[in-house]
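Revision sheet: structure tokens.
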Amino acid sequence: MSALAFAVAALRYRNFRWLWYGTFFSTAAQWIQQATLGWLVYDLTESAALLGAVLGVRALPMLALAPLSGLVADRFDRRHALALSQVAPCLVSFALAGLLLLDAVEVWHLFVFSLVGSSGMVFERTLRNTLVFDVVPREEVANAVALNTIAFSVTRTLGPAVAGILIATIGPAWNFAIQGATYAGVTVSVLMISLARDPARRPHPAGWRTMFAGLRFVAVHPVARAMIILGLVPPLLLIPSFSALMPVFAADVFAVGPEGLGLMLSAVGAGGVAGGALAATLSRYEHVARIQMYALIAFALALIAFASCSTLVAAIAFLVVAGMAEMVLASSTTTSLQMCAPDAMRGQVTSVLPMLPACISLGALIAGIGAQAIGPRPFVILTAILAVMAFVLLRQCSATYRGLRMSALIARR
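Predicted:
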């Protein structure tokens, strides 16, 4: 098999291709929202703290509903559940578009939008991640996860650029209308997947008593526990630097307006495309912990360099590197967590993953407050240093993590 064929091996499977198309629609909606909502909040309030608060409330449904999403993934038809999960985000996106066109938006509307939209996102992420195991063989799961990160990164590259242009030319209302249409596209693509019925996934009263089984598994299994600890570092300390503070850097540091905001967010996405391709190529690399070490350190150093830049061009270059490292790290941790879970409770273990974006929301709240207190540049540098220190501590304390091998994950059932 050629290097290219190996890197896209999971695309040989029809059902995975439809799932992959749905990833494009879903992540396009999310990144149009990310750029537009951040700019809209800061434009209305001129408050970095309030910007962080609007993004931070998304943590509430992500934490509260994640165990339920895992139960749904293990007990019900995953395709239909995934299609239904997009209804609320679709409707609320069109509703906010209408309010903007009527010039009737108030700040509390944006809080409601964040809460409702993130509720659908919890189920979407758990169900999509779990469906991967239904549409490709186990030995191709790491490759499939990496290809999904490419889809995520392509839309992160294009979505913010489109959002920035639309904000500047016709206003943010149409961004939310497009977002609603892309959520509808997710439903169509998912329903094109055809799977044999799995009798193990049916509603069962006892299932409600096992809702938190995934959390218990993660707490006691050494590999799963290490992946979650490592997975918490970027959303709390690294990702908020560009998920929450980019409007502040665009408006106050580089003075580049919404077009510049779109370029910076797109730079992260462009790096993510390269990172996803690298992760797909390395999907069967044996030394899992080593890949994660290089990726996290590169991520932190790139953000330190970004925060130290005096020009937009240099900042964009370092954001590309940060995006690349982020995707390699995310692909590796996501794959390792899912593959160490037993088949019968994979959805419940996978449901822990949406809690990590909830930490991005918490990190966004902290980033907004921190940036307002000490400035965005010092805050980004400080959190990047803390991220490296946290990783070093994990590596020193866990011999199981240091010895993690891909062959052992593939062999596990």
